[in-house]
Amino acid sequence: MRAIQMIPVMALAMSVIVAALPASAKTLPQPHGPVLLTLSGEIEHTNGDGTAALDLEMLREIGQTDIETETIWTDGMHRFSGVSLKALLDYVGAQGTMIETSAINDYMVEIPVSDAVTDGPIIAYELDGKTMSRREKGPLWVIYPFSSSSDYRTEVIYSRSIWQMDRMKVK
Amino acid sequence: MTQPANAPRRVWPNRARAGGGLLLALAAMCLAAIVFLTFEITAELRFLGSADSDNVHWTLSQAEVEFLELGNAIDHARVSGGSRLDQVVEEFDIFYSRMVTLSSGQLYAQLRLDPGFAGPVNTVRAQLDAMIPLIDGPPEALWAGLDEMATQLEALRLQVRNFSTAGLQHFARSSDESRTSIAVILQRLALVTAALLLALAVLLLHSRRIMARTSRREKELGFAYARLNTILETSLDAVIVAGMDGRILDFNSAAERIFKTESAAVRGKSIGEVMVPEHLRAAHEAGMDRMRTGGEMHVVGQGRVKLEAMRTTGEVFPIELAIERATTEEGDLAVAFVRDISRRVASENELVQARDRALAGEKAKAEFLAMMTHEIRTPLNGVLGNLSLLNDTPLDTAQSRYVRNMGISGKLLMQHVDAVLDVARFESGVETGREETVHIGQLIQDIVDSQSITAQANGNRLTWAWSDRPVEWVRVDASRLQQVLVNLVGNAIKFTRDGQIMIEAEAHEGADGLRLDLRVIDTGIGIAPDDQARIFDDFQTVSEAQSKSINGTGLGLSIARRFITAMQGEIGLESTPGEGSVFWLQIPVTAQEAPGMPEAQAAFVPTTDLPPLDVLLVEDDDINLEIAQEMLGRMHHVVTPARNGQQAVEIATARRFDLILMDIRMPVLDGLEATRRIRASGGKSADVPVIAFSANVLPEAKERFAAAGMSGFLGKPLKGAELSELIATFFARETSAQSPPPDAAPDASAHAPPASPGRFDTLAARHSAELVVFFDDISRASMDRAEIAERAHKLAGSAAAFGQHDLRAALVHVETTAEAAADTDGLQAALTAARLAWQNAPAPHIG
Fold first, then answer.
1. What is the pLDDT of residue B750?
2. Residue B90 has what pLDDT?
3. CATH no. for residue A93?
4. Taking CA atoms, what residue in B is nearest to A165?
5. Which of residues 89-128 of B touch A (CB under 8 A)?
6. Who contacts B9 (Cβ-Cβ below 8 Å, separation ≥6)?
7. Has residue B563 got a pLDDT over 70?
8. Which of B64, B328, B541, B649 meets the CB 3.0–4.6 Å disulfide criterion with B2?
9. Domain tally for chain A?
10. Does residue B559 surpass a pLDDT of 70?
């Protein structure tokens, strides 16, 4: 009996210790397809030269999150699929508090790390099940769940919903 | 203490209540308006906050920038010789995606309704769509079409400029509208808020006023409560408050004092247990039950009730108790006020005893006086009778004068004794007034007639008159009125020399019936004011100087006062010394119809021509016997004396007499019994007239005599005139009447005649009245047979005397039936017959 009880206690203790220690840097796999997103700055896991370059395959591997929402830039309800910002930041071991996000045309906006929550924004790579071309604001579009809460329907959030996004710098 | 049921409730004035309600309604309306406006503002703010706007201006200008970037990229590509074509594609994609946003994004849906915006956007979009095959095609083709593309884009420059400007204007306008709308709402909100604040302020003031009033009331109530408590605590009456279950809730200090206990000791206990004596407990419990169930209350709410209570020491004492029921919030209560009246009851009892003793003493005194005077009358009769005889013997001049003086003194003494007897009889309650119907003018005239000789002796003129409308027949206690008037007139004559004496009569209708005023006015010496007050008291005479030549017992006016007071009248005087006096009296009388006049003159019978009679004289007193014997002897009657009743019965049984004179009070056998025995003996004198012969002149006595079977009455002292008149009424008729009534003989009372016409009227009226009373009594009350017999007998006698022979026979039948046995039917029949005979009987008359 005593022994059985000990197991979850020890597991808890272990996880606490892991969380408390600085996670050891890890080398990410190299991208095989075209690089869609390059992360830099305060990240722990990289795949060369202090940056993490990710292709669509790698983004898909992190895990997919879907958001059904309307946006002010499109017409009607759409399903966006992508990797959640939270999962992405975890994947690269981001340490900062602010993400400097840039688009192909060098449009730049800052997204606070605190926005990265479960059921929060995603880095969408599919619209209604199809990858998005550059003309369709692809290949990556930061999408917040606008329809789920009025908190996401503010000008600040709209400005953070950057399309044709290709770079992230964690600060 | 408990709040009484009728204490004033705290009333909120209606006006204040209405005002408060209005304010509340207003405040509620304001609040609703504020909520509404707040919602609106929130919506506006949400619109602003979530403004689906992105940064519209930036986006629009960005479209221009990206258009220029595209042109730039094309220029670069053309200059560099097609090495930077991918740059052109990228810029195209960026501009294209911008144009997609503008042409299909919902943010611009409103804007697209403006043709100034939609037109250029669609033109640009169509142009871009047309370029797509070139852009997506091979780089060589793109390079070849690059110049063409530049030209086309150049043509679009103005279009891009136009939609950008139109968009900016549109958003500027709508932003203005939004601001204005918020401003208006905010203004309204401010107004409504101001109104609300005002309403709240007024409400606050209002509630402060009400609070002030409430606290003032509370203070007042507190004072009232304290005052009430002080009153209760200092009250001399015990105040006890109990619940409906009889448990004591409050017990003030007077209650502690009276019941000899302490409030704390009895609170919560049952009233019955603490205060009600054992013999009243059952009644108390029943009363409490009635109070609880709302039954009929005997004590509660009935004012003060006398009861008994018990102290904790067990002592039972009298109380005065008042219980009221009060309804309060805590339920119904009984509030009892108890007064210890043991001291009062004790002193009342003492007073009652003292009064009883005093009354007993008074009565004894009056009885003693009556007996003494009565005892004085008898020997005095002897003296006067002997004087009367002596006067008839040969006397010389001196002796004559002595005899006359003795006679005067004797009569005066007799008057005094009579006066004292009057008072004594009145006080002892033996004498009661008797009303009869009289002609009031005749009554006064008789007095004037009888007193005028005396008046003339003093040189006075005596007259009388009605001062107003005269009345004739009235019902009044005539004999007393006569006595009073005689006394007043006598006094007036005594104290007036050579003057006027006037009797003034006046009748007037008062609130309570007819009243008769009589005034005896003289021009005599008058009465000093000091004497006026005491003149109606017993044994009061006027001062020495005035009365030196006048005698009196000082009882006349006090008797007059007694009689008039007994008749519910008033008597008084007004007098000025030296000028005269007015004695006035006022009595209530009842006006009457004139009674039928009998043939009174027939009663007058000459006193001469009387045959010598054989008389049995029964008298125990030697002197009286001798006087009577002498008088009868002088009238040539033959007298047989008997010394007591027993002798008389024996003699009368053995021998027939024409007349029996019977004294009443005698040793061995009294006159009444002797008469009864003579009547009952069936002896030789059983039916001869028996004349009572007594100093007892009370009317009651005469009735008793008649009841014993006596036929007439003579007062002592015996006067020759009266004696001969009486004898004449019996025997003159027998000689002069055609024939005596056949059945009248055994009842000698048939021969009792009136002494004079006035007297006859009185007797006849009385007889008629007695008949009425008799038949009335018989029909109303159950009378025992002996009484019926006695009264029928008496009435039969009177009926015979007044010529109502049929009625007499019927009454005799009633008498015998009543005496016989328990023959109820027979008696009833006899009574019915008698009633019929009475209704058919002629008016009383003589002959």
1. 35
2. 87
3. 3.90.420.10
4. B94
5. 90-94, 96-97, 100-101, 104-107, 109
6. none
7. yes
8. B328
9. 1
10. yes
